[in-house]
Amino acid sequence: MKPFQSLGKRIDPEIIESFEIVWDHLGLPGSWWTGEQRIAIASEVRKSNPRKLWENVGRLEDYAKDGDEILSPYVKAVVRMVANETSKIDQQVYDQVIASIGEGGYAELAAVVSQIVAIDQLCDALGIGREKLPISKEGKPTLERPGELVTGVAFLPTFAADKLPHVAVSLSLAQADNARRMLLVRAMYSGSTFDEMIWEHRNLSRPQIELVAARTSALNECFY
Amino acid sequence: MLLSSSSAALDESIDVRNAVNGNGADVGVLHSQQLIAFTEAAHRLDETLPTVRENLIAAVGEKGMIDAALTTAVFRSLNIAADSSGIRIDDEWEEIAAYLAMETEADQFSTAANSPNIGNHIHSIKIKHGK
Fold it and tell me: pTM of the prediction?
């Protein structure tokens, strides 16, 4: 059975299709992580959600950078911080993380987290079970770093934003995963009418949608 | 920003501070209390979520509730992308972001440090308005 069939009767087919594309690639080798590691990243996100109020990652330097598991305790802690305590990531934390896992590894990790969170959070909000994670495929990461990156938009180097909002290029160092992440954004939120203030393609009005968006961003303490 | 702009397009006046920080009453958006309660419960994933979900369905229908669920899910994902990468506010949004930050106190979030120009805009606005 194809994934996400349980959502099929309630959710627009374009959204299901975007979820299937994410699932088709989640367990494949990426640019910086193997398929097995990417599934372990997704699995760590799931284990940490829902987060109990008293659970905090704390200081990343307290976690071991070596270990026998697929991901080291340090990388697992980075995953949990990106997934649940993103607002704590400042320039200092970022510099420390990339010194360990590199800019590309960090961008891909964050892009994988952002994809699994979008899909799992939807299932949780609707009160339906999360989709089983795909099986990973063997293979080595491509170690592919896109050219023509710029600085000054984010901590991470990114593609030039041109006329796109900065968030669209935020994780473009992980080019393929960033594209899939933005595919979710288009399917779940904006469609092709982001610039229009009156929306007819959704069941809520645009102000109702933006009210939910504004409150969500406030809960996550996201200034952007 | 888009909450203000989209409301203005419909000739609706909204209370941004209440939308961001309050309980949703009198925000100026239809069914705002049920939408805010659902967003909060979906964020916490606590035991109130099933009841709050049913309340929202009663207000906006099943499809409206699904729209709210899609929105809160994808915005959590967008927040992760924005703050894990450390992006700053886009140049053309800085001034309105400064106004809204003053209104909602969002400039108190630690992630405001990623957009250092906003502080300058807030300072200019305060001088302009004699504050």
Answer: 0.95
